[in-house]
Design goal:
Blueprint: E1 2-7, E2 14-19, H1 22-30, E3 36-41, E4 49-52, H2 64-76, E5 87-93, E6 97-98, E7 109-110, E8 117-121, H3 126-133, E9 137-139, H4 143-197
Antiparallel strand pairs: 1-2, 1-9, 2-4, 3-4, 3-5, 5-8, 6-7
Amino acid sequence: MVFYFESTVASPPVTLFMGLDKYENEDLIKWGWPEDVWFHVDKVSSAHVYLRLPTGQTIDDIPSAVIEDAAQLVKANSIMGNKMNDVDVVYTMWSNLKKTPAMEVGQIAFHKEKEVRKIKVAKRINDIVNRLNKTKREEKVDFRAEREKRDRLEREGKKQLLRQEQERKKEIEKKRQEEAELKSYNTLMNSETMAKYDDGNDSDDFM
């Protein structure tokens, strides 16, 4: 089961989501998307909250209000973190999450620490948490199927772009050949025209 929340602080609104428990967090870690941004309370147990970025958007493009919504949501869904003030919430791209067989369920590390961002949350803001909870909905999701569908569509898109690029190159080559043939034809015509006027007679050789 996945919980979805709508953040309306951005236009258009964005969706935040998290797993039901640590076992579903494992599936989210395993089958996440390259476009996913992962949020977690630093150094204490909490929910894993995700934001899926639109194609072409980067972690630097996320509005600060959306980051605050995600940070409040992840703090509110941490048994310890919800009771604490001045907690840090870390976030990074899904591709930066590192999982090894020796780690416990739901536990992760990072490939590159320098790619982990951090935001300080002074306290729980009930207005934000309540606003998000009013939009909460549950869905049963096949994480693997969703990821495989996403990858298939990406492959098809890349193949289409490749075909379009090949067609573009063919058109350029065809145009180049046509221009070369036209240039050759014009050169030939000019040579034949000059030959007609050059009939071998010298203009001074007449009676």
